[in-house]
Amino acid sequence: MATTFAGVTAVGSLASSSNRVMDKNISTSSNKLSSFASISSSSLGRRQNLALKRAPHSFQIKAAAKELYFNKDGSAIKKLQIGVNKLADLVGVTLGPKGRNVVLESKYSAPKIVNDGVTVAKEVDLEDPVENIGAKLVRQAAAKTNDLAGDGTTTSVVLAQGLITEGVKVVAAGANPVLITRGIEKTTKALVAELKLISKEVEDSELVDVAAVSAGNNYEVGNMIAEAMSKVGRKGVVTLEEGKSAENSLYVVEGMQFERGYISPYFVTDSEKMTAEYENCKLLLVDKKITNARDLIGVLEDAIKNGYPILIIAEDIEQEALATLVVNKLRGSLKIAALKAPGFGERKSQYLDDIAILTGGTVIRDEVGITLDKADSSVLGNAAKVVLSKDYTTIVGDGSTQEAVEKRVAQIRNLIEIAEQEYEKEKLNERIAKLSGGVAVIQVGAQTETELKEKKLRVEDALNATKAAVDEGIVVGGGCTLLRLASKVDAIKETLDNEEEKVGADIVKRALSYPLKLIAKNAGVNGSVVSEKVLASDDPRFGYNAATDKYEDLMSAGIIDPTKVVRCCLEHASSVAKTFLMSDCVVVEIKEPEPVPVGNPMDNSGYGY
């Protein structure tokens, strides 16, 4: 870069010297040059030199400077801990049946009022960069728990705060953080194993309680989710939508439904509803474009001869072929409808295979050696009913292919286990739902948009908690299971190698009481008194019901937590606490002050007259 500029400067000087020679020759040949011209030429030369001198400076690259915070006298860790506590105190407000809401400012829309821990945590951005790093560390525990279990995000943050608070005290007293974190890790693993032993499988009647507790003791939501689960099965798909009315509602879509409507409105059989409906319909599935109507003659003649309706699902149907189908439909000689295959690329082929398995048909594609012009009625699938609207198509199978469908569902479940991306898993789950014969849709209603957003988040948490309960079972709720696990720590300590690892186990033991104490505090009761009363009883089902302010059998009272949620809280909180306690220096970017825009003194736009 430097040599290039040198060359340019040399050329510039050469040009300027030649200019001077030319000026000299011109002045000797003619003495009538005006003083103005000489001034302008000399100023032009100076301007050119000035431009050449400035050019190299325009290619500077600036790197942002970093500021280092060393942990002298525990100062860096204290700052990180302040950030952790700010986030945990904010999120902790929402914990328990008597937890409050948090109002979040939104620049471009109405403010959000939420009761969901992870949504609140995502909004936190602290001014001090070191405190902000502390808050971000703990936010990871909430985000990971939300990804895996979909609920329990507030408990994760509160538990992480407890582990960090107790751990920092011990490290500040001179304990070795490496051995302490090892003790925390071993204790957590042992407690997860204990948790699985005390977990029990959820019964259908208990699904209502699991959902209601997660939605803040809202039994209307609990009953709706339990009803949805009973209609589509425990492994069925339940989705949420924003409703148009103020009331919540539930409806079930039977059969396989996808977002593709008829190609032409001329296929409509019910002009009022603008839908095409056929019963005992045959399906022709084609994984390519249909360009020529002559290729369809064999199949269509058989349909006319035997009088059955036929639905064509193809990648696309070109104008000539489509016109032939429409004309025959309008004449009444053929009961027919056509639509484009759902999905794109590879997913389109997978959807066609799914439809083929549901209906017992065969997909016509060149790779398997079946051509459209040679196709006959043996490749057609059967459906009990098909309904096509402008935007949606529903295919209800006749039940004759149940065994093949179950094999296909098992195959897709294996693909879900291998899949890494969340989007891919979601799409595979959709395919399972479509094949297994139904999707339940819960429409969440509210009077205002702000209430709708808050309500939808609560219902989403309740739905995720119910799914988690189905996956791994249930335990006693209200923070009591974590408190009971603390009594198992003494036995785990005996298996640890040295004293400092045992100190790590004690840190976990003390932190496990934090969630229950906060639930009690939010209910207006002394947390320490509550935890003492709960531990005074040997009955594992006995605990504090914050909703009714009673000590009772929590399983019978319906205060239940999914085992998966409690496990994720424990694992992710200890993971964050371990990395936090091992930190000894913080590196942050130094923020450059933003330049103040200079106002135009002649601009009078801000003043009225």
UniProtKB/TrEMBL annotation:
Superkingdom of origin organism: Eukaryota
Coiled-coil residue spans: 402-438
GO BP annotations, alphabetical order: protein refolding
Keywords: ATP-binding, Chaperone, Coiled coil, Nucleotide-binding
UniProt xrefs under Pfam families: Cpn60_TCP1
PROSITE patterns per the UniProt record, alphabetical: CHAPERONINS_CPN60
SUPFAM superfamilies assigned to the protein according to its UniProt record, in alphabetical order: GroEL apical domain-like, GroEL equatorial domain-like, GroEL-intermediate domain like
Name under which the protein is recorded: RuBisCO large subunit-binding protein subunit beta, chloroplastic
Organism of derivation: Ambrosia artemisiifolia
Phylogenetic lineage: Eukaryota, Viridiplantae, Streptophyta, Embryophyta, Tracheophyta
